[in-house]
C-alpha cells in the first residue's frame, strides 16, 4: 500500500525496485478441477462457475500474488464460436464477469487487477491486422469500463501479433505488459528474443517477458536474452516471467504442446516447491522483478516464490502461516526419521523419484512446422 492507503500501481512498484509476484495459470488448473474443456481452453467458467474462479483467485492471493489476471484467456467470440460449446454466453459477458471476480478478490488484499488478452485464431488464419485488432479492442472496452489497473498481452507465438495487441491496449492510457510464449530460439518466425523485446518496447510495452510453453529455467534464459537485446538497443523496460510449472528440458522450439504427454499426462513433470524457490532466485538474479507462473502452477508454487523472495519483499504471504520455511514444521514431528526432514539441506538436495519404473526420463517431442 502507498502511504495514503491507496494501492500502488504496477509501474510505481516496479520503478521502486519492488518484487511483484504474479499469479499462476488458470485454464489448466481449472481444467483439472472440471471447469474448463481441454483443447478449447476458453474461460466461460467465469459465468458458469464463478465460485471456482473466485476460489482460485483467492488461493493465488493468499499464496502471495500481487496481481490477479482476469480469467479472459482466449475470450473472444471468434474462439468461442470455433469451440462450439459456448452457445448462450457472449465473450462480453465472460469478460465482464471475469473482471468483477478478479476485482472482488484483489480487494481482499493488496493485489492489482490485470486485464489480459491472448493470441487469436484469426491471426493464425492470416486474417487482416484490423480484424485482429478489433478483437483486442472489444476486450479492452470491457477492461476500461471495469477499471482494471493495468493490461497484459500474453501467450503470443508471433511478435507481430503481440505488437498489435500492445498498440491497442496502449490506447487506454494504462500500463501494458507483454509476454510471448517463445523459446531461446525466438518466436515462431525465429525473430530472436532480443529483437522481440526491442519490438515490443518500441510498440510501447512497459514490461516485457515470457510466459507458458517452457519450464522456468528455460524462461529465465529467454528473458535474459531479451534483456541483452534491450541493453544493446539502449532501451529500458521492466522484465516479467510467467513460465510453466512443468519440467521440459527436452522440448524443442514448439514448447510443451509438442510433448506426447500434453495435456493429459503431465503430472510426472510437475515442479516441486523447492525447485520453484530456485527459479525465483535465478529470475531475481538476472533482474526479473515481475515473477509468476502459468500452466502447471498451483497456489503452493506461487507461495514458494513469495517465500524465496521474502527477504527482498519484507513479508511472507498469508498461506505461509501453514508452511514452515524449508519444511521446518517437520522438525516438530514426534517420529525422529520425519523430524530429520525438517531442514533446508534435506529438501534442497533431494532428487525426487517418479515412482514409475518404466517411465523414461525424457520424451521425444513432436516436430513442428512453421505453419503449425
Ligand atoms: Zn500456460
UniProtKB/TrEMBL annotation:
GO terms for cellular component: cytosol. Homotetramer. Its cofactor is Zn(2+). Involved in the regulation of homocysteine metabolism. Gene3D superfamilies: Homocysteine-binding-like domain (3.20.20.330). GO terms for molecular function: betaine-homocysteine S-methyltransferase activity; zinc ion binding. GO terms for biological process: L-methionine salvage; methylation. Residues 8-309 form the Hcy-binding domain. Zn(2+) binds at residues 212, 294-295. SUPFAM superfamilies: Homocysteine S-methyltransferase. This is Hcy-binding domain-containing protein. Pfam families: S-methyl_trans. Binds 1 zinc ion per subunit. Keywords: Metal-binding, Methyltransferase, Transferase, Zinc. Pathway: Amino-acid biosynthesis; L-methionine biosynthesis via de novo pathway; L-methionine from L-homocysteine (BhmT route): step 1/1. The keyword Zinc applies. The keyword rRNA-binding does not apply.
Amino acid at each position: 500500500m502507498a502511504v495514503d492507503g491507496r494501492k500502488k500501481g504496477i509501474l510505481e512498484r516496479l520503478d521502486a525496485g519492488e518484487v511483484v509476484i504474479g499469479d499462476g495459470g488458470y485454464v489448466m488448473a481449472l481444467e483439472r478441477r472440471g471447469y474448463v474443456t481441454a483443447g478449447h481452453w476458453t474461460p466461460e467458467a467465469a459465468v458458469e462457475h464463478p465460485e471456482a474462479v473466485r476460489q482460485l483467485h483467492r488461493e493465488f492471493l493468499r499464496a502471495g500474488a500481487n496481481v490477479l489476471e482476469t480469467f479472459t484467456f482466449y475470450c473472444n467470440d471468434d474462439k468461442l464460436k470455433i469451440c462450439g460449446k459456448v452457445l448462450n454466453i457472449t465473450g462480453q459477458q465472460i469478460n465482464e464477469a471475469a473482471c468483477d471476480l478478479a476485482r472482488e478478490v484483489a480487494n481482499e488484499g493488496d493485489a492489482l487487477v490485470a486485464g489480459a488478452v491472448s493470441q487469436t485464431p484469426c491471426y493464425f488464419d492470416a486474417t487482416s491486422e484490423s480484424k485482429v485488432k478489433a478483437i483486442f479492442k472489444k476486450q479492452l472496452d470491457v477492461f476500461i469500463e471495469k477499471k482494471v489497473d493495468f493490461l497484459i498481452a500474453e501467450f503470443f507465438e508471433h511478435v507481430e501479433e503481440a505488437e498489435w495487441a500492445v498498440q491497442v491496449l496502449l490506447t487506454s492510457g494504462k500500463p501494458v505488459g507483454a509476454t510471448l510464449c517463445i523459446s531461446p530460439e525466438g518466436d515462431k518466425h525465429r525473430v530472436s528474443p532480443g529483437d522481440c523485446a526491442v519490438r515490443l518496447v518500441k510498440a510501447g510495452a512497459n514490461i516485457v517477458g515470457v510466459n507458458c510453453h517452457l519450464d522456468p529455467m528455460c524462461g529465465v534464459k529467454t528473458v535474459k536474452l531479451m534483456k541483452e537485446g534491450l541493453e544493446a538497443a539502449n532501451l529500458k523496460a521492466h522484465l516479467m516471467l510467467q513460465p510453466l510449472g512443468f519440467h521440459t528440458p527436452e522440448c524443442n522450439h514448439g514448447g510443451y504442446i509438442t510433448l506426447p504427454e500434453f495435456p493429459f499426462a503431465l503430472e510426472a513433470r510437475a515442479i516441486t516447491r523447492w525447485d520453484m524457490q530456485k527459479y525465483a532466485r535465478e529470475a531475481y538474479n538476472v533482474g526479473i522483478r515481475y515473477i509468476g507462473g502459468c500452466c502447471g502452477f498451483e497456489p503452493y508454487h506461487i507461495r514458494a516464490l513469495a517465500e524465496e523472495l521474502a527477504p527482498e519483499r519484507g513479508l511472507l504471504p498469508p498461506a505461509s502461516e501453514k508452511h514452515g520455511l524449508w519444511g521446518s514444521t517437520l522438525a516438530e514431528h514426534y517420529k525422529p526419521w520425519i523430524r530429520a526432514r525438517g531442514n533446508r539441506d534435506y529438501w534442497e538436495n533431494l532428487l525426487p523419484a517418479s515412482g514409475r519404473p518404466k517411465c523414461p526420463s525424457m520424451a521425444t517431442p513432436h516436430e513442428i512446422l512453421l505453419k503449425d
